[in-house]
What does this fold into?
Amino acid sequence: MRTSDFDYELPQELIAQAPAQPRDSSRLMVLHRDTGEIEHRRFRDIADYLRPGDVVVLNDTRVIPARLRGRKETGGKVEVLLLHRERAPGGEANWRAMVRPGKRLEVGTRLTLGQDGHTVSALVAERREDGSRLLTIADESCLAEAGEVPLPPYIHTPLSDPEHYQTVYAREPGSAAAPTAGLHFTPELLQGLREKGVGILYVTLHIGLDTFRPVREADPAHHTIHREWAVLSPGAAAVLNRAKAGGGRVIATG
It folds into this structure.
């Protein structure tokens, strides 16, 4: 298997720049593996393919305003994408981050990051082997106001409402990107699935570095997958085991 086996042509004009309204009106392609038949439906029709006793698993992570723009002490522009918080001694906060311009942000560089009067001061404390940096931030109280919700590189239209890049069930802050497969669900669709007898189960996985790092190795088996923070509670595991024991299907979203 080669990474090139997965190449395909995706015309730029077919990449949606804004979410469908309502969300569940987006297109859905259904492939019947037993016959090879393909159906073209709307996402709201997903209920037609689920049965009572099935369990749909959703990621309730919430995207944080992880993109910060600012300047170095020398005046040069910088851009930072916070990936995850790391423990630090004392009251300071250490954040692993991707930075631009990467080659010019050496250890010891001081940054002022933020917008609209909300800024934070950061120090480049460490350079990691993968090119990311460890930033020490003395005061995190303004991070939410200083940053903005990061968008994928294929989205070029600014968000009119940052909530458009959150799932309707997002509640645990920590991701640098949205679990996009879940963006098509609406409260009404979820309620309809529950009324049909389909279980809705939430787990948490904070999306990080690999969402933004392309696979550059010719053999995908050689690609290094970075770790991400996740929680599957004993209660959630028990629900999944009961569903499978009872003949239900487990449908992971994403």
About this structure: The first strand starts at residue 27 and ends at 31. The radius of gyration is 21 Å.
